[in-house]
Amino acid sequence: MQHHILILNGPNLNLLGTRQPEVYGPTTLQDIENLCAAKADDLGVTMTFAQSNHEGALIDMLHAARGVQHGVILNAGAYTHTSVALMDAISSIMLPVIELHLSNIHAREAFRQHSYIAPVAIGQICGFGAAGYPLAMEALVTYLGTGD
Fold it and tell me: In 1-148, which residue ranges form alpha helices assigned H by DSSP?
C-alpha cells in the first residue's frame, strides 16, 4: 500500500529564504518542497505540498485530507500558538499529524513556546531547519507502517 501524505505550511512560510534568515535560514519553501519530493521518492510515498497564509484555507485543506491522505505534516507557523480552530480541525479529521517547526520554538519567546497543535499531534519536530521536513516524513511513514 502506497501512503499519501499532506505537507501543509502556514503563514509567512512563502517568504522563507528572505524572511529573518538568521532565524529560518536561506532555504526557500520551493527548496523544501524539492527536498520533500526527493524524500517521498526514497520512501515510496506520494505527497501533496501546500502553503497558505489563511487560517480557514489551512482548515479546509485539513478537512479535504480525510479519506485521501494517510497522514499530515503541519508547519502551522504562528497559528501554532494562537489557533484553537486548527487544533479542533486536527482533532476532527482522524489522521495522524506531526507538528513541525524550522526553529526550536522552545528556545524562543515565551509566547512561541505554547502550542495548540501539540496536544492533538502524534509528535513534534522542531529546531532542525529544512532538515526537519524529511525527518518528519520518515517519522510519519514509520508511524503509518507498511500497511501489509
Answer: 21-24, 29-43, 55-65, 84-93, 132-144
Give me 95's grid cell.
489522521
Domains along the chain?
A: 4-144 (3.40.50.9100)
Does 4 qualify as catalytic in the annotation? no
User: Which entry of 3, 70, 101, 116 is annotated as an active-site residue?
Assistant: 101
Q: Which three cell numbers stand for residue 64?
A: 479535504
Verify whether residue 101 is a known catalytic residue.
yes
Look at residue 85 and tell me whether its pLDDT is greater than 50: yes
- Type of residue found at 103: S
How long, in residues, is the chain? 148
Q: What φ, ψ does residue 22 adopt, rounded to 5°?
A: -70, -20
**Res 67 pLDDT > 90:** yes
What is the separation of C-alpha 142 from the centre of its chain, rounded to a whole number of angstroms?
16
What does the pLDDT average to over 114-136?
96
Q: How confident is the model at residue 146 (pLDDT cuts 50, 70, 90)?
A: low
